[in-house]
Design brief:
This protein is an alpha/beta fold. It has two domains: about 70 residues; about 200 residues, Glycoside hydrolase/deacetylase (TIM Barrel, Alpha-Beta Barrel), CATH 3.20.20.370. It has seven helices and eight strands. Bound molecules: zinc ion. Zinc ion binds next to loops.
């Protein structure tokens, strides 16, 4: 009996010791690994979500950039004392920068200078604005450089944008291609336009009174912007284009309402 009790005591003690030794060993490692693992997981989650939100921000930024609507007001054939001044006043008032494809005009130095000093861009529109520029590439280059020299001498300014007199639409591709090579050689990019106020229409005055014609010009632009994220607007500022100068504030207002911001063509990204 006594020996049975002794044996039971030994078994119990061994079981207790075994249990006592094994409990902490079993309990601690999982606890440790549980403590560490969630932290790492949380850290990973946090990092992942940080990266995701950064990616989202980047995506949003580039999406916004690609969705950005920019209008480029371009004003050809000036300057003139009446209309260029009126156009510059409007642009200043509305905080809009534009591109002026000027021609060589006499007694307009102050206006050429005002265009530059108010943050607009001057473009080369040829010197002669003549049809023979499409007959000979040599004449085209000579004329281009003559206009370049005129602008440089007057303003100490070199431009990188060019507009073909009358634009390139409807002209023979091979003729334009040869001239584009000359433009590239001389550091120019050329620009046509997406919408026009159509102020060169010779019958304009026969369509109606001043109010009607100005409305027509506004509509020519604001009703033809659909799907155009980059919108180059053509208008003119020679001395006969008084309706254009009067339509401009409404054109700017209409384009702003459609979400357009404004920029100069030297900033145009393909
Ligand atoms: Zn022109």
């Amino acid at each position: 009996m006594k020996s049975k009790i002794n044996i039971l005591c030994i078994v119990f003690a061994c079981a207790f010791l075994a249990a006592g030794c094994s409990l902490p060993k079993k309990a601690v490692p999982p606890k440790k690994s549980i403590d560490v693992a969630p932290l790492q997981t949380e850290q990973r989650k946090e990092n992942t979500s940080k990266n995701a939100s950064m990616n989202n921000a980047e995506n949003l930024k580039s999406k916004e950039k690609s969705d950005e609507k920019i209008a480029y007001i371009t004003v050809d054939d000036g300057p003139s004392r009446n209309n260029t001044v009126a156009i510059l006043d409007t642009l200043k008032k509305d905080g809009v920068k534009a591109t002026f494809f000027v021609l060589p005009q006499g007694n307009m130095d102050d206006i050429y200078k005002r265009i530059i000093s108010e943050g607009h861009v001057i473009g080369n529109h040829s010197y002669s604005h003549a049809n023979y520029l499409y007959d000979s590439t040599e004449d085209f280059e000579k004329d281009l450089l003559k206009a370049k020299a005129f602008i440089y001498k007057k303003l100490n300014y070199t431009t990188t944008v060019f507009r073909f007199p009358g634009g390139t639409k409807g002209r023979k591709k091979s003729i334009i291609q040869k001239r584009v090579s000359i433009l590239k050689k001389n550091g120019y990019r050329y620009f046509d336009w997406d919408v026009s106020v159509a102020d060169t229409d010779l019958n304009l005055k026969n369509y109606g009174d001043e109010k009607f014609i100005i409305n027509l010009m506004i509509e020519n632009v604001v009703n033809n912007t659909k799907g155009k994220k980059r919108l180059i607007v053509l208008m003119h500022d020679d001395s006969t284009k008084t309706y254009t100068a009067k339509a401009l504030p409404y054109i700017i207002k209409g384009l702003k309402k459609q979400g357009y911001t404004f920029d100069v063509l030297t900033n145009y990204k393909e």
